[in-house]
Specification:
Protein name: EamA domain-containing protein
Structural class: mainly alpha
Keywords: Membrane, Transmembrane, Transmembrane helix
Shape: flat
Number of helices: 2
Transmembrane segments: 31-52
Largest sheet: none
Strand content: under 5%
Oligomer: single chain
Number of domains: 1
Order of helices and strands: HH
Helix content: over 70%
Amino acid sequence: MNWLTYAILSASSFGFYNLFTKISSDKFSPSVASIFIAGTSFMIAIIVTLYLNI
């Protein structure tokens, strides 16, 4: 795959991530939402790092 495929996948994933965060923003307090966002980003980074190192 070339870099453009990864860029499109990354941009669309980020867009969906923001969409779902905005949908659920009225259901959680800001601190819980912040922890959720940071935790999700961390887990995705760990999974991708482990996948690329294998």
